[in-house]
Amino acid sequence: MSRRVVITGIGAVTPIGNNVDEFWSNSKAGKLGIDFIKTIDTENLDVKIAGEVKDLKIEDYLDKKESRRLDKFTQYALIASEEAVNNAGLNIDELDKNKFGVMVGSGIGGFHTHENEFTTLYNKGPKRISPMYIPMTIINAAAANIAIKYEAKATCTSAVTACATGTNNIGDAFRYIKHGYADVMISGGCESSITPIAIAGFANMRALNSNNDPNRASIPFDKERSGFVMGEGAGILVMESLDHALKRNANILCEIVGYGSTCDAYHITSPDPKGESASRAMIDAINEGNIDYSQVSYINAHGTSTPYNDLFETRAIKKVFKESAKNIPISSTKSMTGHLLGAAGAVESIVCIKALEEGYIPPTIGYKESDEELDLDYVPNTGRKSELKYAINNSLGFGGHNASLLFKKWE
């Protein structure tokens, strides 16, 4: 069995908007969501900036008792899921629950709860550890809580592939529907790891930008880039078989037609300098979509603003598209949001969906200094209108995980 798969609902919580409309509007406008960290004490931290979620009132979405039992990454996932389900117009009571599943992951899981409980352990002893500690921190908590809320009884899993997590979960859900195991899937990624230990850990491995200038911190493809900026949030998609969506007269936003997932098998943090496996993920997605390479009209790059990622991803894109790579608009919305780790690929999939829907490419902001080998069209600083038919979303994660999704404009 091979079925067409469409997206009928999307939901987002991000540093530049707590719903899809706000997020997309600010993406198009090139709004910077990176600022000095306000939710934790940064006095002893070298890195003092991040892309925090702002002005989100959790109590508007979750009751106090429920929210106290959930780490922030799960809270964000539930809030984005509610938007996506409402956006899709799903009537949960009418669904076949045994053909309705969830694939939502996180790169790190409940870091806020970990740190709070570690502090309790050392200050007050093991008897004071919360009985909810484990259910709050396990990475599958987000997927499980979504499944419980919506009574989704098909598969409920959480692919964990570092910064490729969101993209892998969407790709796996695509295949699950394509091959007939489910009719409807809630899929995506979530993350909330703006905590002292996460900031210190990434900073000490020299992955984060440390200049603490929000305007020159997350600058993908710029010659002066020196590390990524931590972000947080969630991106959730409602995906359906085309037949199921048409049968209920759903509003179809986009079609997903291809998926590639590969591993560099090279290094635990550095991408492969040659971009071999990253290029193969794109090739596999294009081949599954059964389209010509010339039909790809936009790439949302992983574009983290680290020296290695942006160079090696550029090499991978050139390896796939050869000379025509220079004709494809490529942008990194991480220039606005920072890097949402396990949520990044899901949020950036929403960018691709909206870009195809509206014919608009959001910019890579903060771009000033060109780099010799990074000579592609990175849509610097100002977005542009463009007729788009196919868009690729790339995600590359620590451990050498590469994932690419191919989206098609719904016509």
TrEMBL record:
<dbReference type="InterPro" id="IPR016039">
    <property type="entry name" value="Thiolase-like"/>
</dbReference>
<dbReference type="InterPro" id="IPR017568">
    <property type="entry name" value="3-oxoacyl-ACP_synth-2"/>
</dbReference>
<comment type="function">
    <text>Involved in the type II fatty acid elongation cycle. Catalyzes the elongation of a wide range of acyl-ACP by the addition of two carbons from malonyl-ACP to an acyl acceptor. Can efficiently catalyze the conversion of palmitoleoyl-ACP (cis-hexadec-9-enoyl-ACP) to cis-vaccenoyl-ACP (cis-octadec-11-enoyl-ACP), an essential step in the thermal regulation of fatty acid composition.</text>
</comment>
<dbReference type="InterPro" id="IPR000794">
    <property type="entry name" value="Beta-ketoacyl_synthase"/>
</dbReference>
<keyword id="KW-0012">Acyltransferase</keyword>
<keyword id="KW-0808">Transferase</keyword>
<keyword id="KW-0444">Lipid biosynthesis</keyword>
<keyword id="KW-0275">Fatty acid biosynthesis</keyword>
<dbReference type="InterPro" id="IPR020841">
    <property type="entry name" value="PKS_Beta-ketoAc_synthase_dom"/>
</dbReference>
<dbReference type="InterPro" id="IPR014030">
    <property type="entry name" value="Ketoacyl_synth_N"/>
</dbReference>
<dbReference type="InterPro" id="IPR014031">
    <property type="entry name" value="Ketoacyl_synth_C"/>
</dbReference>
<keyword id="KW-0276">Fatty acid metabolism</keyword>
<comment type="similarity">
    <text>Belongs to the thiolase-like superfamily. Beta-ketoacyl-ACP synthases family.</text>
</comment>
<comment type="pathway">
    <text>Lipid metabolism; fatty acid biosynthesis.</text>
</comment>
<dbReference type="Pfam" id="PF02801">
    <property type="entry name" value="Ketoacyl-synt_C"/>
</dbReference>
<protein>
    <recommendedName>
        <fullName>3-oxoacyl-[acyl-carrier-protein] synthase 2</fullName>
        <ecNumber>2.3.1.179</ecNumber>
    </recommendedName>
</protein>
<keyword id="KW-0443">Lipid metabolism</keyword>
<feature type="domain" description="Ketosynthase family 3 (KS3)">
    <location>
        <begin position="2"/>
        <end position="409"/>
    </location>
</feature>
<dbReference type="GO" id="GO:0004315">
    <property type="term" value="F:3-oxoacyl-[acyl-carrier-protein] synthase activity"/>
</dbReference>
<dbReference type="Pfam" id="PF00109">
    <property type="entry name" value="ketoacyl-synt"/>
</dbReference>
